Amino acid sequence: MFKYILKRLLLIIPTFIGATFLVFTILNAIPDGPLERAVAQLQSGGVGGGGGDSVAGGSDRETVINEKVLEMLRKQYGLDKPFLVRYLLWLGLYPRETKSKTVNYGKAFRENLKIVDDPETGKRFFIQRWIRPELEDGKVVVYKSGKGGDFAFGNVPELPSSSDITQWNKSNDWDIEKFDDNEVSLSQFAVSGILQGDFGTSYQHNEKVTKLIGDRLHISLFFGLISFFVTYLVCIPLGISKALKHNSTYDVSTSALIFMGYSIPPYALGVLLLMLFGSGVFTGLKIFPLGGFRSPNFDELSFIGKVFDQMHHAILPIICYMIGAFATLTILMKNSLMENLSQDYVRTAFAKGLPENTIIYKHALRNSLIPIATGLGRIVGIFLTGSYLIEYVFNIDGIGLLSYNAIVNMDYPIFLAFTVFSILTLLVGNLISDILYVLIDPRIKFT
Q1: pTM of the predicted model as reported, rounded to 2 decimal places
Q2: For the segment 355-408, what is each residue's pLDDT rounded down to a tens digit?
Q3: Is 110 a residue whose pLDDT tops 80?
Q4: d(CA 101, CA 188)
Q5: Closest CA to 403 of 219, 265, 263, 230
Q6: Could you confirm whether domain 209-440 is CATH 1.10.3720.10?
Q7: Contact, 396 vs 389, CB < 8 A?
Q8: How is the chain split into domains, by residue range?
Q9: Is the pLDDT of residue 156 over 60?
Q10: Percent of the chain with pLDDT over 70
């Protein structure tokens, strides 16, 4: 079993690389990206006037962007490197520039190393040091001071003595990019990408993508997991009852309702449910809130009030989450049980005089659950990755809505992070399905 899992994990790696490379290529090929939008905003005079020359034409005002500003923008959006290098940088297989500074010789600049808080005063302090390049015998030598600061440190034991900052030593922490007789350009590099857990910084929110996703992941998990469990708890008994009452009025009517729901897109059903039970446009009934994850006063409610408020906001979105997999899972359960009921071992069990309930629920049902259980991993992946449009319709601030806004605003770091999360979830889900298949079905062996 261990060898099989290891083999499958090794197959996941090229699949992951291929999928992410394809998405990365498409994002870099489509027009109107973040660089083009930034340039258009500058040219329209939307941001300052220092980035170019302004020309007036009647009532219109246009800014001509010079090459230096364009180069700064390309570097800001990571477009100053070749495409393959950018992909390797994003993966974390190629060192990226983390700091850069151009200074005159003998002039020191401050390097902030860490932020700490004084436990008594609550004030925030910087641990820092000074960097000073010198030109000695035609070579650039970089010196660094001891760690310290320019202020009283308070009672923070982590901070060093202020006298340490006066000590200078040669430093190998900086790479020399270029230099002349007057100034030198220094840079620092580090390997940092998705393989190190760094998904970059959002263009729109100006925050780390990992923090943005971490702040919202529990919301999508809440809806995904509840929808997953409720779907299985409803669909399996419903499929069993439909198989046992095949071609009856009950079977035909429930099939009609199931496929009617299946034919409606989940986001469209969400709009309809909000109109019927949220806004009261047609019925006058305002039973459920119009959206959101919780009420604004959620923290002020009692425990019972919090439970009621949470479920009050969750019922309509969960119905929309379930509707897509509802028909598939129910019909799969029904057909699987009907197929097993027609097998020879079931007829043999009836011939031996075993009770009908024992034959159905102990023998036939157990084998019928094999295709249901083996699809478990893939369905988990679908639920956990959330839904763009359902969260948009219900204004649920989960990772689905975050990713939707990232697509609209061309916020590539967020969208790529969501792509990684979705791909990994589905790949691991497929692996779980394969393992469950082998564990449940004795006819299948690990190879």
Answers
A1: 0.78
A2: 888 888 888 888 888 888 766 666 666 655 557 888 899 999 888 889 889 888
A3: yes
A4: 9
A5: 219
A6: yes
A7: no
A8: 2-91, 97-190, 209-440
A9: no
A10: 86
pLDDT in tens, 364-375: 888 888 888 766
Percent of the chain scoring above 90 in pLDDT? 17
Q: Which two tokens stand for residue 267?
A: 């986001």
Question: Comparing 61-70, 210-219, 333-342, 384-393, which segment has the lowest mean pLDDT?
Answer: 61-70
